[in-house]
Amino acid sequence: MERVEEREGSSLGRWGTAAAAVVATVALAVALVRIWNLIVPHPPGTVCSLPLPPPPGCDGGARLPLAVAWTAILAAVYLGAAAWAFARPQRRTVVTGASAAVLVVLAAVAHHMVWTVPWR
Asked: Across the chain, what does the average pLDDT equal?
């Protein structure tokens, strides 16, 4: 059997890199939208229930510091992965695939932390 090697310009490498980049970008976008939707306050006059963690918009700004911190972390990982992929073109598919996986995991952790941690 022949080994398929990834070469610069090969269609396998380009499609793998593109797919990983799309996954990473979508994961970042979804995470940021979900995190920041937790922060948006309800309109005045809305009655909030009392469970912990409180529903989105009923926390009085307690989630804001965590949302800012996780936004910075996710953006730094995304930009760092992109810079590393362009700096190491011979391993671009591996780097973007691994960074997409890390970003998906970090996005899930970030949403969970912003949702629950201020009340632990």
From this structure: 79
**Residue 16, in any domain of the structure:** no
CA dist list (Å): 30 to 49, 78, 103, 111: 26, 13, 11, 10
**Is pLDDT above 90 for 120?**
no
Amino acid 6: pLDDT: 47
Q: Where are the alpha helices (DSSP H) in 4-91?
A: 11-37, 64-87
> What's the pTM?
0.75
SS3 120: coil
The answer to whether the CB of 24 falls within 8 A of the CB of 99 is yes
> For residue 96, what are the domain limits?
26-39+52-119
Cβ atoms within 10 Å, residue 48 = 14
